[in-house]
Write a structure and sequence with these properties.
two-stranded antiparallel ribbon, 115 residues, four-stranded antiparallel beta sheet, 19% helix, alpha+beta
Amino acid sequence: MNSLRRTLLTCGLMLLAPTLPCLAEGNDTKAVPLRTPPPEYPVALRRANITGLVVVKLDINAEGKVTEASVVKSNQPKLEPHALRAVKNWLFKPATKDGVAVAASLSVPLQFQIE
């Protein structure tokens, strides 16, 4: 989690969730992030002082890949495609149930801000 937070902060983004792993109802272990490239924060949006929050819901399959990503909440539509494009490339150690990898869902808030 610390490496994810450090990566996001260096790109002018801040992860608001205190923990990213998700324990889906009935699962034994949480989905844990393995690879989380940060969203692009285009220079044009920074120069225009466009900041905001985009909360993205992720569906993660039993292989740990993001199969679906959708915006749950956003206060800046111009940032949504950048958040969605990034999280679709994230990779997780999948959640497990009785020792078997299973699908899970979680929501990730991404704060775009000028540092």
